[in-house]
Write a structure and sequence with these properties.
Number of strands: 0
Distance between the termini: 139 Å
Helix content: 55-70%
Structural class: mainly alpha
Order of helices and strands: HHHHHHHHHHHHH
Shape: rod-shaped
Length: 356
């Protein structure tokens, strides 16, 4: 009865055990417990992938079955307290349990038993080199896994610290950069399947921050006054938001785009007089005329432009024409001055025959 081999339902037993259950010393598990432990580990670690297999045996990640919450309930002590002699004994035990599992499968050829055989055999061989007598290779892999176990403990601490920090972050560009840095923490890979859940949590926080900034800027655009200053604020919010967050996915971009179109039309309608006054104040120099010539595009660098954009273009053309007249008048006055003809009011004009 002690070596009973259950179906896949046994996987739930292992997954449901809580961390912190500990015994005073190492205990060799029953085949029933060992097989279910291995099957659950293989499901979690996906060792059917050759790439995953090499990652674990190379020590780049800790087998999930060696994590305290999964290992202690079955083996009695944390993995780092298991000796080389005990690991060698577990390799032999794993080989025996594989044979008993196959014998049970011969009597009960169900899909559940097939899955149990497939998952547990792969894992027992990957972790303990079940029954292979490759002691040197077993201990080499376990030495790498002991280092991964230490890294896993550090990763757990990093995860806890990140979660605590996330609770304090407010939507800002600095917070977004901080979350991105968290996502790049290499130790997180040692969390195994927990790493995916943690990264999903980081992704949710990142998306929430992006959404928060976009909605906040959309609100600020709608609140901007219908003046030239307000218009420039709307344009700046649009430019800066797209520069900072344009590559980030967000369901709030539609809200932002609608707010920009509505706000720029409203502000542009009220800002045209201020725009004309600003152009009128520019001197008719080469630099001044260049500024006027580019002014509509400078004010509205991106589409959509406001509904009355043509009025801004016309204002620029009118000011350029006026500047041309001013430049001619200034050139004429300069010529007269050079010929001492500035006071032409007192000069008598003579006809063709000299008559006054």
């Amino acid at each position: 009865m002690a070596n009973r081999i259950p179906g896949l339902a046994g996987l739930a037993l292992l997954a449901g055990l809580a961390p912190g259950i500990a015994h005073a010393e190492f205990q060799a598990p029953t085949c029933n417990a060992l097989v279910n432990w291995a099957a659950a580990g293989n499901v979690a670690d996906k060792l059917s992938s050759g790439a995953n297999y090499r990652v674990f045996q190379g020590g780049a990640r800790l087998f999930s079955g060696l994590m305290d919450r999964n290992f202690v309930p079955v083996f009695g002590v944390p993995f780092d307290q298991v000796t080389d002699a005990q690991l060698t004994a577990l390799s032999a035990l794993s080989g025996d349990c594989r044979l008993k599992l196959r014998a049970a499968w011969q009597k009960q050829r169900t899909a559940a038993m097939q899955n149990l055989v497939s998952h547990s055999e792969s894992y027992l061989y990957a972790v303990f080199f079940a029954g292979s007598k490759q002691t040197a290779q077993l201990l080499k892999v376990m030495a790498l896994q002991r280092k991964a176990y230490v890294a896993y403990g550090q990763a757990v601490e990093v995860k806890a610290a990140q979660e605590a920090e996330l609770a304090t972050l407010k939507p800002s560009l600095e917070s977004i950069e901080r979350v991105r840095a968290m996502q790049g923490e290499k130790l997180l890979a040692f969390l195994g399947s927990d790493a995916d859940l943690h990264r999903q949590n980081l992704d949710r926080h990142l998306k929430g921050m992006v959404d928060g900034i976009i909605v906040r800027n959309a609100t600020a655009m709608r609140e901007a006054p219908a003046t030239l200053e307000g218009l420039r604020k709307i344009v700046a919010l649009n430019v800066d938001t797209r520069k900072d967050l344009g590559k980030m996915r967000s369901s709030s971009w539609t809200v932002f785009n609608t707010a920009y179109a509505d706000s720029i039309n409203k502000a542009a309608a009220g800002a045209i007089d201020g725009f004309k006054a600003e152009l009128a104040a520019l001197p008719p120099t080469d630099e001044g005329m260049a500024t006027v010539r580019k002014s509509p595009v400078t004010l509205f660098p991106y589409k959509p432009v406001p509904a009355n954009y043509a009025a801004y273009q016309a204002a620029a053309r009118d000011r350029l024409a006026a500047m041309g007249v001013e430049r001619k008048a200034a050139a004429c006055a300069d010529t007269l001055a050079k010929r001492n003809l500035t006071d032409i009011a007192g000069i008598k004009l003579l006809g063709a025959r000299g008559e006054s």
